[in-house]
Amino acid sequence: MRRPAWSLGDFRLHKKLYKGTHTSIYQATCLHSGLPVALKVYFLARMPDNIVHMLKREIEIHAQLVHKHVAQLYAAFLDSEQRVMLVQEYAARGDLLGLLQRLGGRMQPDQVGDLVVRPFLDALSHLHSKGICHRDIKPENILFTQNWRLLLADFGVSINLHQERAVTRAGTEGYMAPEVERCPLKADPQDNKDNRELAYSTAVDIWAVGVLAYELMVGFPPVVAPAPAAGSTAGFVRSEMTAAALHFPASVPPLARAFITAALAPDPADRPTAAALLQHPWLQEAAVRVAQQAAKRAEAEAAVARQTRQLLQQATSVPQPLPGTAGLSTGDNVSATRFAVRSVSAS
């Protein structure tokens, strides 16, 4: 994929995957390498200055993230029509939201723990180790490749806490931690940057992990409220949402409940880190059970394969001659068979 210059002509566009106010995403193929990619196209003419600032930050952050569970950014370039192109790893299986809908809106706890939360936390731990806060964790931003490798994507509102203070109300309603909800919207990127009381940390991503795990197992987020009216705070995740206020159906096992409760601690300082959550007993137990189930499936498939081979061997084996017909030709053997049948019938 490396080359001195890039252009839209390097790619064959197949279909539009998404269209937003300032951006569109296309499935495409690189004509030089044959690699399938996702082209994220920003239209600079439609973007206000604060969004351009976020785009620059997105590219800077994404470019430094190289991890098996982070969608790879291959390149970013500006074309002659003032379009910024981000060439990214393509996820053929789509996003987690689509998968969840195909599964009827819920997943089994072991599936959630081992197939989603564990690899996702692996990616999140990598981000946090670099001081990067994602700020928009939700099913739509978790993707899967053709072989079901999980990818964390969309760093459009991410921020590097080593370089600047996070003081903006950013993310998606329902997944924002209480300390994010209280922050005001901004007209200029530098608004409120000197206000330490508004600053929050990577713990906001941990809150979103708790919301995500709950939603995947239960079928809806832990707090469901209508969209707020203009200028109203109704519908926000409120500080009253404590561990005691959480309600779990019987299908959520105790260890999963403990995981979610820890992630949704009202005080950010009480939430575990992503690295600590990776060692949680729920994930360890889920990994063991998923591995056992996979071993049983493999054993059953091997047994079916053995039976199939035996049947094929029997079907293709050379038939043994009838007693007393050894040395006869095929025609003689057939005649002898008919004679034997007539002899049995006559008797």
Describe the structure.
The protein has 347 residues and is of the alpha+beta class. The chain has two domains: 8-90, Phosphorylase Kinase, domain 1 (2-Layer Sandwich), CATH 3.30.200.20; 93-302, Transferase(Phosphotransferase), domain 1. Helix content is 37%, strand content 14%. The protein is built from nine helices and ten strands. It has helices at 49-63, 96-102, 109-129, 178-181, 203-218, 254-263, 274-277, 281-316, 330-346; strands at 11-19, 23-30, 36-43, 73-78, 83-89, 94-95, 132-133, 142-144, 150-152, 159-160. A five-stranded antiparallel beta sheet has the order 1-2-3-5-4, with helices on one face. β1 and β2 (23-30) form a beta hairpin. α3 (109-129) packs across α8 (281-316). The model is unreliable at 224-240 and 336-347 (pLDDT under 50). This is Protein kinase domain-containing protein. Residues 11-283 form the Protein kinase domain. Residues 283-315 form a coiled coil. Pfam families: Pkinase. It comes from Edaphochlamys debaryana.
Relevant terms:
347 residues; alpha+beta; Phosphorylase Kinase, domain 1; Transferase(Phosphotransferase), domain 1; 2 domains; 5-stranded antiparallel β-sheet; 3-stranded antiparallel β-sheet; 10 strands; Kinase-like_dom_sf; protein serine/threonine kinase activity; transferase; ATP binding; coiled coil
In short:
Helix 3 runs antiparallel to helix 5, helix 3 packs across helix 8 (281-316) and helix 5 runs antiparallel to helix 6 (254-263). By secondary structure, the protein is of the alpha+beta class. The chain has helices at residues 49-63, 96-102, 109-129, 178-181, 203-218, 254-263, 274-277, 281-316, 330-346, and strands at residues 11-19, 23-30, 36-43, 73-78, 83-89, 94-95, 132-133, 142-144, 150-152, 159-160.
